[in-house]
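I trust your eye. Have a critical look at both lines of this record:
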Amino acid sequence: MWLEYKKQLPLLNTVRYQRCIVLNSSIDSQLHGFCDASEKAYGACLYLRSTDNRGNYHCELICSKSRVAPLKTMTLSKLELCAAALLVQLFNSTIRSLQIDFSKKVFWSDSTIALNWINSPPHTLLTFIANRVSEIQATTKPTDWRHVPTLDNPADCISRGQGPHDFLTNTLWTHGPQWLSCHENNWPQFDFKLSEVPEKRSPKTVVSFKITQAGINIIIKYSNFKKLQHVIAYCVRFIRNVKIRVKTSRQMGPLVPNELNSASRIILKWTQYEVSSSEIRALSKGKQVDQKSSLFRLNPFLDDGLIRVGERLDRAPIPESQKHPIILPKNHHVTKLIIRDEHLKKLHAGMNATLYGVRETYWPIDGRNATRLIIRECVTCFRAKPREVNYLMENLPKTRLSLTQPIFDVGVDFCGPFYTKEHRHRNRTKIKTYVSVFVCFATKDVHLELASDLTTDAFLACLKRFFARRGIAQSMNSDNAKNFVGANNDLKKVSKQLTEMIESNKDQEFLSSKEINWRFIPPRAPHFGGLWEAGVKSFKYHFVRIAGNTLLTYEQLHTYVIEIEAILNSRPLTPLSSDPNDILPLTPAHFLIGSSLTALPQEDLRLVPEYRLNCRDLVQQKRQHFWNRWQKEYLNEMIARSKWQSTTHQDNIAIGTLVVVKEDNLPPLKRSLARIIEIHPGQDGIVREVTFKGKSGIARSALKTLYPLPID
């Protein structure tokens, strides 16, 4: 045989292959792969099938690969599967080299057992078969594989071998089977059915049982998963020991990890069977679960009687329990126990950390909502971060809705301290001063009084001045909290002084003589006194912007307080109207003096006859007529903008922005660059001037002469 092979070996010098393997004017290209194996070798080969616009078919060999069978004896079916895996590897390397789009990819094998393995889930097969099936299914689909008769399989030439003479005259090898150069209707049609194949994992039979005690389900009796696990483990040990007649052979002592794991599996099997019995029956018969089932999208499978998630993460470098976690039913007691146990293991972690810990072994259905509910029910977590109770806001009191005279029902509060100096010049000694804020419930009139301290006498003096200027109120309202929000020591003194003032006999006598009723809001509830708290906020808003940190004299502070009072009483009570013909908005000052406190005290003489006016009033009347025309004819024309009617690119103007400086005497490419170091927004917040630093130094310029560069 060797001499015959040596004699035919020079014939290989005459081997010729066409470099062009595609028909001219090809409109369709297909890739076909064949694989075969024997006890000596196995191999694979690829063919390109092209079709031109006239309907002609041409098939040509692309490449092939062969390997010697391993020394260790293997079944022929395993070798056929190895040949299929080799074909997939050859396909991956070839497809990366060819710049051709294939309309169809078909893989052929003459082994029905190998084809059954390729159409089976890898987790149901033994390790050797499962690894190669996973490799094949990662690149190809089971529907891409077909059966080919042995006589029409060109890969049979690789597995059986042939001499050089036969190799040169073998058209099956160079052009593939004859039917491959014909229409698809002439291809072999062999529909094999999935059947029981060797090398499959044998499922272990586990007997599950339900333990009840006095009509109560023992599973839902316990609120701790570890305790439930120990109880089931002891019950299983008891049943096993009862069956053993020799007492010395019975298992005693503490539970071992195997017993605890077995108890956990029993609990989980019972839990799944209680909720998903129909899914378990379908999976045990090799069928898929119903599409309406909540488990359908998880591609579940049975593993030793437990439903696990499918093989989507089969190639991930993670533990097997995380690749295929055990499915837990939704809203089940055992699911809640497992999540609560993981929450305690993670030291009361948040929702995400707890859920991630659970998903390392289990996959709870709707796990995010279940975990969130468990954490909300955790007492330790609630005490660490309690949630306040929300309730509907109370209706307005009668005093806010009654038609009464101003300053009839009043709320009072203190704010401060504010610091003053004793003398006007060269004196920095600071003296604390407070402001007493009185707010009318009906008209929101604000009255401000200065108090030198927080004593009872000082407040009574403020109250007497208030009654003397605004009239005696029927009822007073105040805050009686022991501690004000903000933990300011001076504000605590305010609350304490107010409480002591009302409780003292001297104040009670004064209030009784004036027939004043004093009401307190609940402690630590400043929102009950929102009306006077808003008055305090409004006063501070204006005072901080006017005085700031300036140290004022008592007279200066008193002047600011009175001016702010006038401003607060001139605020409109109702929304402003956009109609210029409407009357002026209603303000609290209208109830006090009939007009706004900030209005100019000027008499209107426009409708008075001229013969009733003296010379000074006549000049004033003429002046008012001129102002009247100015307001009607000129002022209204200033409302509309004639140009620059929109604001653009204001977001790009910021400190550090790189700009081009406009210079009329230089070409655009010669203009220098600069960087903005300061912006100067107007009263409306729009930036119109900036300060920049360029090659000539620091300068201030209008924004119109700068061009921000379009860079980030």
Q: What stands out?
A: The domain at 2-186 is CATH 3.30.420 (Nucleotidyltransferase; domain 5).
